[in-house]
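Lab intake sheet, docking and co-folding queue.

SAMPLE TYPE: protein with bound small molecule
LIGAND NAME: magnesium ion
LIGAND FORMAT: SMILES
REQUESTED OUTPUT: full 3D complex as structure tokens
PRIORITY: normal
SUBMITTED BY: R.K., bench team

The fields below were copied directly from the construct record.
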Amino acid sequence: MARGPDVGDLLDPNAPGPVVTGVVVRRISNVFWVRAPGAAAGTTAETEYACSLRARMRKEQIDIRVGDRVRISNLDGVNVTALITEVLERTNTLPRPPIANVDQVIVVFAASQPEFSSHLLDRFLVLIQMSGLPAAVVINKRDLVSEDSLSALVGSYRALGYPVMATSARQGDVEGLVSLLAGKVTVFAGPSGVGKSSLLNALDPRLSLKEGEVSSRLGTGRHTTTFASLHAIGGGLVADTPGYSHLEFPDWPPEELGWLFPEMVPWIPRCPLSKCQHDSEPDCAVKDRAEIAPTRFESYLRFLDELRRAHDRAMSSTTKVESATKMTGGGESARRLVRIDADQREDSRRVTRQRLAELAAKAASGELDEEELDDMAT
Ligand SMILES: Nc1nc2c(ncn2[C@@H]2O[C@H](COP(=O)(O)OP(=O)(O)OP(=O)(O)O)[C@@H](O)[C@H]2O)c(=O)[nH]1
Ligand SMILES: [Mg+2]
Ligand SMILES: [Zn+2]
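RESULT FIELD (auto-filled):
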């Protein structure tokens, strides 16, 4: 960007012209690229304006992130610049990558190369649900496996209620993805090498995202790479991310893990123990009656063990205050894929339960009557 960061001062904020609402899609130091409807009358085409902050906002050090919805004025159609005058309220923020107002996370896995791991996919799904966001699954590299093994894979996660799509970025078989992306802000997540960047390039070759090499990881601590950008694709906005190598759960009560496994949800209210962990408790309705694939239940037990250990560690810290700091601050939280601000967390659990109850309703349709499902959703 040749223009210096002071462009805002050159513009007269008292003569703002039309004010439009747009989305921050990229940020490089003090310049924010805002995607908004063009200023020219009669056009609906969107333009990305290089924007600076109104001086007052800069003084107040207003925190603006990629994904934020902002009001911009002083639209200059020639230089494609504008001035951000207001940040609208966020619905959520994802810390890694740092993006606001995310509507969904699409977990991309390869059917092969790297070898498909249901445990790793389960881990991504659980983490996303802990953040309160809807998840969808894309199985890429369908060209590498037989139709039979592909449909078994797709079917097993679709049966849980997740939207699932099979693609091949290599063969340009990606059109179906558009229906998932339209009108939404989506983050692509998944292990390294599964084809996240390739999929986005296949949808829009102009993107030329780097493929086939291990991309720079989102670091930890002070040097965390804050690079994040949203690409306009398929009528929505999409963020590519580098593959995650380290996925830790945030603090989450072990007895609430079951709510993140849609096939367990309908049975949880029938367990005699209110805080049943569906492990070794007697007369557990989940263990006795839910239809859970063995790999899924293994994932459940693994994650349960991790949450219990984390919980025990927190409890053994000397004071409650200390343990709270340990659980939410510093390097550990920086490594988490999805962590939401503490004040959002309780809210998100409620939302999560509600959505999972809906998922379970779909998955278990016919097994339970509506009244029971209504009870669960409240
Ligand atoms: N056979 C096959 N190979 C694919 C397909 N999609 C991507 N690849 C290849 O898989 C490799 C990894 O693709 P990327 O798009 O870089 O994967 P990524 O998920 O973005 O990886 P990171 O950025 O490291 O997280 C590249 O060599 C791609 O050419 C596909 O549908 N089929
Ligand atoms: Mg990539
Ligand atoms: Zn139980």
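REVIEWER NOTE: The pocket of magnesium ion (ligand 2) is lined by residues 196-197, 215, 240, 242 (CB under 6 Å).
SIGN-OFF: pending second check by T.M.
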